[in-house]
Amino acid sequence: MPSVPAHLRECALGMLQRGMRTADEARAINCNVRTVRHLSTTTGQTSDHPCSGRPRVTTPAQDRYIRTSHLWDRYRMATKTARVTPGTHNPSISAQTVRNRLREAGLRACWPVVRKVLTKHQQRHLWAQTHCRWTTQDWQKCLFTDESWFCLTRGDGRICVYRRRNERYTEACTLERDRCGGGGSIMVLGGVSQHPRTELVVIAGNLNAVRYREDILLPHVVPFLQAHPDMTLQHDNATNHTACSVCDFLQDINVSVLPWSAKSPELYPIEHVWDLLDQRVRARAIPSRNVRELAGALVEKCGNISQQELQTWCSPRGGDAL
């Protein structure tokens, strides 16, 4: 029979003290007569006696070995530790036992954080130390340029949904997505600074070094830099930006380029402009139906971004928020 709850044991003990018959009391609380008789022989104790439970298969010394070996080698597999650790009653223990001991020590299996491989020639802190003394006037002379993709039916970032425990496949918590491109996408390129910005350029197809030089730099970026000769061009280390033909072209026309450290995170101010532009395009009452309408909406909304908003992102204070 199942164990009698503690509150029924207390009731049974009270009935016994009032002189109730054992059989009637067992019938009242729906338990065995032997259980009531056992309560009558106790000295008022109604709680369960302590049980030893399943015997532990590892010793305290083995527990310390398991914890120390995994602290020494964080990528050590539990199956390997189980093979070399004998049990107290068996020649070996299971991998689940090793995981249990590690969990007791506060060690859980998690996905590692992936870091980029940086050589001694790619130390980003040197770049930061060089430019940490730049003043507001120095950063005002930078033209931050970048390309960005905009999708027609959805954003290309992660989307979160708030759901309950068993609502994973409910209609309100699922997202329809086309695996073959999501309805189309388009690439645009622009440049922002505390001075007037460049126009937004819609790029058809892929962008290589030749197209970047002939279709972007020559007709759009270079005229802006020539109108502001004290400006410095900033672009990342994409292959179409660092190609020899592009570097020679910029050097020939005396364009100053801000050196950019390798494998740097995208922390330049124009990233905030792309996020703001995407929010305003998707907030339209009538969404874009094709790539052509999306391109027109991007150019329109980009022209509506005020220069005051751009100055907020391009100022040193706005850069601190990156």
TrEMBL record:
A Pfam family of the record is DDE_3
Taxonomically, the superkingdom here is Eukaryota
Q: Mind listing the GO molecular function terms for this protein?
A: nucleic acid binding
Q: Where is the Tc1-like transposase DDE domain?
A: 143-288
Q: Do you know which PANTHER family this protein is assigned to?
A: SI:DKEY-77F5.3, TRANSPOSABLE ELEMENT-RELATED
Q: What is this protein called?
A: Tc1-like transposase DDE domain-containing protein
